[in-house]
Amino acid sequence: MFYDNISMLTDLYQLTMMQGYFESDIKNKHCVFELFYRLNPSGNGYAIAAGLESAVRYVKNLKFTDDDIAYLKSLDTFSEEFLSYLKEFKFTGDILAVKEGSVVFPHEPLMQVKAPIIEGQLLETTLLNIVNHQSLIATKAARVCWAAEGETILEFGLRRAQGADAGLFGARAAVIAGCHATSNVLAGKMFNVPIRGTHAHSWVMSFDSELEAFRTYAKTFPDNCILLVDTYHTLESGVPNAIKVFSELKESGKLSDSYGIRLDSGDLSYLSKQARIMLDEAGFKDAVISASSDLDEYLISDLKKQGSKISVWGVGTNLITSKDHPAFGGVYKLVAESFENSGNSGIKEFKPKIKLSENPDKVTNPGVKKVYRLYDVKHGKIKADLICLEHEKIDATKDLTIFDPKATWKRMTLKANQFYAKETLIPIFINGECVYESPSVMEIREYSLEEQNTLWEEYKRFSNPHIMPVDLSQELFDLKEDLIKQYRLK
């Protein structure tokens, strides 16, 4: 469940292909696989890469137990020799990846695996499962946080998540992308992230009166007294009773800096405005008004435009499930193979491979590649990403002209010394040994917020966002065109 050893969490065809490789003369052929995605979720202008720490733990603990081997043997599908190989299996290749929390765009590698083909093949399903889910939720959370314009976002989705894993790692991804805290206690424990929560309607209903329920809660938690006011009647009962309790806390000297109300139903804009007037007139101008109730980025944006007085937003179902776009769509494709049938992961000579399709978007970019992110010197914002072949280098002291690989007449020239370039992929595993140490979740969150700040506002809007140029170098473009012609003429 928590990625300590999930070697068997794979598709059957990964294992059958592995046996095929094992019994052929290409089992030691080194190949390069790339994990990328083709379309930003939710019509967004970007995505947030997440899941790297989980992926690292998966690869580090990748082994088949005696119980695993016994189960596979019971299928009467695999040979004794292959099962013996699996029993001693260890990943020996290299993995590069973008930093967790990075802003990313379609068609560029988020992860690159260089390994014997029999090893690289096995990683496909599990890496996609991890990266697809966490990147999806992180991207959704980034949208929600942007809609709130810096106000507090709390992830409240555990009860509606599609399973314990989805709730746990979805909470982690949400915090990475900018959420301030989660209601998920296990996520708080495992990832050392802030947890927040108040009480449910059942708390109020379990007492003889709403006022008694509020008083009891305030007595128990005077330092975090957020009262749910919509159990019976928000404005005629809930808010007046909350004001009575706040007055009693104030008189006793126990009113803390963290107090207020939560709305969970009704017209949140109207109710928050009326509640604000009532709280202010009673002398509680610093009382927080928080809200939940099927929120998403669109509703939060609308409520803010309507002048609602909400400043803390609890977002659950629509965030943790990415309800409007429930799948990230990442893929894992072979892009190169070694010229030799044997050797080690230090092999540098690779032959590019390409997948063709009647759908142009599904034609892969061949070869071993790297991605340069190009920034504007003056503002520090992203101008474009350029996918290059592994050996290519960019000289920012010279003009650089890039072009749209689908509409080659669309060109942009970056002037010398007015841009700078950074490679996006960093080493994670070398020769099977992990060389990467994951930062804490809160450190990743800080990095992700910095990354999101490198986007121009036009890329963040919800409707028709500007599309970031993700271009191919001239050399990569020519290679792709040559391979398309070569295979189409066969």
Give me the secondary-structure topology.
Layout: H1 12-22, E1 30-37, E2 47-48, H2 52-60, H3 66-74, H4 80-87, E3 94-98, E4 103-104, E5 111-116, H5 117-147, E6 152-155, H6 164-177, E7 181-182, H7 185-191, H8 201-205, H9 210-220, E8 225-228, H10 234-251, E9 259-263, H11 268-281, E10 288-291, H12 297-305, E11 312-315, H13 317-320, E12 330-338, E13 350-352, E14 369-376, E15 382-389, E16 400-403, E17 411-414, E18 419-423, E19 425-430, E20 433-434, H14 441-452, E21 470-472, H15 474-488
Parallel strand pairs: 6-7, 6-11, 8-9, 9-10, 10-11, 15-21
Antiparallel strand pairs: 1-5, 1-12, 2-4, 3-5, 3-19, 12-13, 14-15, 14-18, 16-17, 19-20
Helix pairs in contact: 1-5, 2-5, 3-4, 5-6, 5-12, 6-14, 9-10, 10-11
Brief descriptors of the model:
globular, seven-stranded antiparallel sheet, six-stranded parallel sheet, alpha/beta, single chain, 490 residues
What's the gist of this structure?
By secondary structure, the chain is α/β, with parallel strands linked by helices. It is 36% helix and 20% strand.
How would you sum up this structure, described in words?
It contains 15 helices and 21 strands. The protein has helices at residues 12-22, 52-60, 66-74, 80-87, 117-147, 164-177, 185-191, 201-205, 210-220, 234-251, 268-281, 297-305, 317-320, 441-452, 474-488; strands at 30-37, 47-48, 94-98, 103-104, 111-116, 152-155, 181-182, 225-228, 259-263, 288-291, 312-315, 330-338, 350-352, 369-376, 382-389, 400-403, 411-414, 419-423, 425-430, 433-434, 470-472. By secondary structure, the protein is α/β, with parallel strands linked by helices. Strands 13-12-1-5-3-19-20 form a seven-stranded antiparallel β-sheet. A six-stranded parallel β-sheet has the order 7-6-11-10-9-8. A four-stranded mixed β-sheet has the order 18-14-15-21. The chain is globular and about 80 Å long.
